[in-house]
């Protein structure tokens, strides 16, 4: 199926590994010029080489700590200057942050900054050009809502879902779509540190109908569809990619 993505431009945060890397590669091989940002220069360089080898459009890479207060402004300015215009924004950078029931203020603030505020701020930096051009697709990568432990990142991601819905209500009239993608347990560095191979197997057999953790490519497949013109009537929704792991139908 042609996703009609060829010739479009995109900004992807957290592009060095995991979902962001897989999404960047998928979009690039669909003919999208991606502005790929993260902190790890070596990984971003290897991503460029990997995409070149796969015959995709070589991404522009930009080294930036997303936590820095001026990161949204710098990323938006550099992306607009190198791409000319931005058609697609994938808000993905982040990290899981399990905390004790009484977590420190520093940890809570750090998570809300990285996993909520910076995404909102980067989006706000790019919104004027989306609105002026009366087009755009924004995809927010979120998290599960069914944890029975404290994870500050999942709380920040829940805030993203509510904000994302509100934004979609305001931006539809400009032809701008805003969606969220909720991953279940996907095999990336972010998750590997919490499960041994044996724990993964045991957990997946007990909790995931499809029997294993997903792969970053599973997220990239859904992401590429959601940001593409094929999804032109989809906005304000949350797409779940979790092997059936959610307990509730709604
Ligand atoms: N994997 C899962 O099962 C799962 C489940 C639920 C939610 N999520 C969420 O999905 C998103 C992607 O997760 P993943 O599994 O792909 O994680 P990952 O493999 O650890 O990748 C995280 C990405 O975010 C970037 N990042 C983290 N902190 C950053 C910072 N301060 N500045 C700039 N970039 C930063 C990292 O780049 P650098 O280190 O190079 O900066 C990396 O590219 C995260 O928000 C995560 O919380 C994942």
From TrEMBL:
UniProt-listed Pfam families: adh_short_C2
Q: Which domain of life is it from?
A: Bacteria
What's the family?
Belongs to the short-chain dehydrogenases/reductases (SDR) family.
In its UniProt entry, what is this protein called?
Answer: 3-oxoacyl-ACP reductase
Organism in which the protein naturally occurs: Pedobacter steynii
